[in-house]
Design goal:
The protein has a domain of 110 residues. Helices cover 79% and strands 0% of the residues. The protein is built from ten helices and no strands. The chain is elongated.
């Protein structure tokens, strides 16, 4: 934090505009030991980028070919759709990772609560949780890596509250941040750590259950939206098969009409997706 403040002070002396750009850009925070992940930023692998590009490109080529029937235009548009496909796939993977992290964190709290209840200290509780999470989720999962960082920090005489706050900062998750804050206060004032861990686990579990119920309720509407997304393509294909080929005189007009129709179709789908975005 001190480093960032010094940067801002230096930017005022002749580099104001450059400093503003630096502030606007989201910086990746890699933790106390500079070896951890910032869960607010997702880095795609090369395979994921290729998959997102190929799926987006194929979908774009099919849609533009159905609407316009011009292969050259469809191929050019497909390249742009490939980039959109990468961004969309990245968003899906990012949300999936953060949702899984919350599930893993909940199970970690349950393991810690059990260990504390049996009379073990904080370090032993985190060590037991590490073994439990490894058996449940695997060695390479995010929560196991986070527990490795916490255990390494405890061995280096870094307090548990500092390590949890560092994890919470990188998680960008309100539940984890709240737990770290309450744990810090309880640890300094001699509060009941086991009770705090247990109650936090229950709160997270309730939130996950509510979100699952919401998704179940709106799943039918999501299916309807996906069907409505495909329906215009079927209608356009049928209409094109029944009408005569375009004449040179009205080709430009037809192109503009189809472009506007495609734009309205995409806009309607985006609005529909946003309406379906409900969180607990």
């Amino acid at each position: 934090m001190k480093f960032n403040q010094n940067e801002e002070c230096l930017s005022d002396t002749g580099n104001g505009e450059r400093g503003m750009k630096r502030k606007e850009k989201k910086e990746e925070y890699t933790g106390l030991f500079h070896n951890a992940d910032d869960y607010g930023i997702y880095h795609m692998t090369a395979q994921q980028r290729i998959l997102g590009f190929v799926v987006g490109m194929i979908a774009g080529a099919v849609v533009f070919q159905i609407f316009f029937g011009l292969w050259i235009f469809s191929i050019l548009a497909a390249a742009g759709c490939g980039i959109v496909g990468i961004l969309a796939y990245k968003s899906i993977l990012h949300k999936k990772r953060n949702a899984l992290l919350l599930l893993e964190f909940r199970d970690m709290l349950e393991s810690i609560s059990t260990s504390l209840g049996s009379g073990k200290n904080t370090t032993q509780a985190f060590s037991d949780a590490r073994s439990d999470m490894k058996n449940q989720y695997g060695e390479q999962t995010d929560i196991v890596k986070e527990l490795d960082i916490i255990l390494s920090g405890l061995e280096s005489n870094v307090t548990a509250e500092v390590l949890l706050k560092d994890f919470a900062k990188r998680s960008h998750n309100e539940n984890i941040q709240n737990f770290a804050d309450v744990f810090s206060v309880a640890n300094r004032t001699g509060g009941n750590i086991r009770q705090i861990v247990y109650e936090t686990k229950n709160v997270i579990n309730d939130k996950i259950n509510v979100e699952q119920e919401i998704q179940t309720l709106i799943s039918g509407k999501k299916n309807e939206l996906n069907i409505m997304m495909v329906l215009p393509l079927i209608v356009v294909t049928q209409v094109k098969s029944m009408q005569a080929s375009d004449t040179t005189g009205d080709m430009l007009f037809n192109f503009i009409v189809r472009l506007v129709a495609l734009g309205m179709f995409v806009l309607a789908y985006i609005i529909g997706k946003r309406l379906m975005k409900i969180e607990a």
